[in-house]
Amino acid sequence: MSTCNTKLCAGALVAFDGSIKKASQWLHSVKAYFTVNATVYNTDEKKVVTTLAYMTEGMASSWSDTFYQVCEGRTAKYGTWANFKKEFQDMFVPTDTSCYELGWVLTT
Question: How far apart are CA 36 and CA 52, in angstroms?
Fold first, then answer.
């Protein structure tokens, strides 16, 4: 018997380690999870805090710690979900894929 009463059990979120190779796919899974569970994750704050809670490993952990520290002094503590996604993508999703692909070729 399922114990998911307030949330749909559609693909549980997993920890993110800051891997550039996994960042875009991981963010897509987070957005899908929030869409499926829209009645639970119905504010920007809930989405941002939940996303940060899964950034627990590697470079993602350091980035989320810094994000929390910066938010401490804000009136609108965590900002908007749209701004958070942009900051996440600026940090973890490469815009110049040619360098990324070259790095992949050199390290594999």
Answer: 19
The overall pTM is greater than 0.85: no
DSSP classification of residue 57: S
Q: Per-domain residue ranges for the chain?
A: 20-107
DSSP for 39-105 reads TTS-SHHHHHHHHHHT--SHHHHHHHHHHHHHHTT-SSTT--HHHHHHHHHHHHS-S-HHHHHHHHH
For the segment 56-99, what is each residue's pLDDT rounded down to a tens digit?
999 999 999 999 998 887 777 899 999 999 999 999 998 765 55
